[in-house]
Hints:
- The chain is mainly alpha-helical and 38 residues long.
- The protein is built from one helix and no strands.
- The longest helix has 34 residues, at 4-37.
- The protein is rod-shaped and about 55 Å long.
- The relative contact order is 0.09.
- The mean pLDDT is 92.
Amino acid sequence: MMEWIPIVLVMFKLIVFGTGMFFAIKWHYDKEKNNKKK
């Protein structure tokens, strides 16, 4: 019963971290594109 809890928590952490990294990179990329337009 207790063995899958750490696995689920690590998976959740990785998903949240990955999503955060994706949006951070996307935000910087979009900002860079907007700066080049101006």
